[in-house]
Amino acid sequence: TVFLILFAAIRKHTGPDYGSYLILWNDAYATDPYDRSNEPFYFYLQYVLKFVFGLEFQSLIVCFAVLSISLKFRAIQKWSPYFFVSLLLYFNISFLNQDFGQIRQGLATSITILSIQYVIEKRFRSFLLTVLLATSVHYTAIIFLLLYPLANIRLKLHAMMLIWLAAFGLSYFFTAFETLLAYIGSVLFPELNSKIFIYLTDEMYSKRLGFTPGMSLRFVNLAIMYLAVKPEQHNNERNLPRVLVNSYFIGGCIFFLLNILAIFAARSSVYFTVIDFIALPLAMQAISSRPLRYLVAFYIFLYVLYNIYLLINVTEGSMLVPYKTIFE
C-alpha cells in the first residue's frame, strides 16, 4: 500500500490527465473565486489546499493517492482471498488508468466499491449516502445507484451474454443518441455543458469503439464470475456474492449500449466493472475443481498481459514513460 501511494504521490508530469489537473490548479478561481464548474469535493479540497494552507499542486496529487489507494486496498483486504492476484489486477487495470491519472474518478470508484457492502446488507440509506459522496467527487458516479434495485436479478449466463450483444447492436441505431445525451447532461449537470460538448464533438473522445478483442474478454470474465456463484452457499463468505456478478453485468450493458461514444462508455461503466480485481480472485477460490482453478489463474495471467500490451502499444506508454518524480 505504502509503495503504491508513494509511487502515485511523488510523480511529476507523469500519468494521464496530470497536465489537465495542473492547469485546473493554476487557473483556479483566476476570474471567479466562486467558480464551481468542478465537483464539490474537488472544488473544496483544491480551495483548502491552495488558499487556506498555501500548498503547492503536488499536495492535491498526494491527497488523492492516499485516499483512493487506501480505500481500494481496504476492499482487497476485506474481500479477496488471493491478495497478490488482486494486487496484480488492480495495478495493471485500475491503478494505472485511474489512481495514476484520472484521479477524481479513481477516488469515486474507490468509494462506490465500499458501498457494495451496504447493498449486500440491504442498507439503502447508507448505500445512497455513499454513492452521493462518490458523486461529489465525480458526477458520473450517480449512475451507480442502478446497482441497488438490480443487485439480485437472476439471469442465466446465456441471457446475460445475449443482452450484451443486443446492447451492442442497439448502439448502432442510436443516431440521435448524442443529442439526447447532451440534453440529459445539460439538465442534470448544467455546469458541465462545455465538457459534454467537447466529449461529443472532439474526435479523440467521440469516436465509436466498435468490437475489440478486449470486449471478448469481458464475456470471459462474466462467465468465470457467473460459474463461481453457488446459490446454496449464498451466505458463505468463501462464495462469490451475486451482487458482484450483477454489477459486472450492468457495467457491460452500459459499456456496449454506449459504444457509440468511447469516453462515455468507459467513464460510466467503470463503476460497475472495476470490481474485477476482487471478483476474479473470489471466483478462482469458489471453483471447486483444482484443474479449472489453475485454468482461471492462467487466464488471469493472460488478462494482465493483455492490459500491459494495451498500455504499451495502444497508448505507446506516452503518459507513463518516462516516470518522473518531484525530486528530479
Walk me through what this model shows:
- 68% of the residues lie in helices and 0% in strands.
- It is mostly helical.
- Residues 232-238 have low confidence and may be disordered.
Produce the secondary structure layout.
Layout: H1 2-9, H2 18-27, H3 40-52, H4 58-79, H5 83-99, H6 103-120, H7 124-137, H8 147-150, H9 157-170, H10 177-188, H11 193-201, H12 203-206, H13 213-227, H14 242-257, H15 262-273, H16 276-286, H17 290-314
Helix pairs in contact: 1-4, 4-5, 4-6, 5-6, 5-16, 5-17, 6-7, 9-14, 10-11, 13-14, 13-16, 14-15, 16-17
Attribute tags:
mainly alpha; 328 residues; 17 helices; 0% strand
Low-confidence stretches: 232-238
Tell me the structural class: mainly alpha
Distance between the termini: 23 Å
**Number of H/I helices:** 17
Percent range of helical residues: 55-70%
Mind summarizing the main beta sheet? none
**Number of beta strands:** 0
Overall mean pLDDT: 83
Give the overall shape, derived from the CA principal axes: globular
The proportion of strand residues reads under 5%
Q: Please give the radius of gyration in angstroms.
A: 20 Å
**Topology order in helix (H) and strand (E) letters:** HHHHHHHHHHHHHHHHH
Structure summary:
With 328 residues, this protein is an all-alpha fold. Helices cover 68% and strands 0% of the residues.
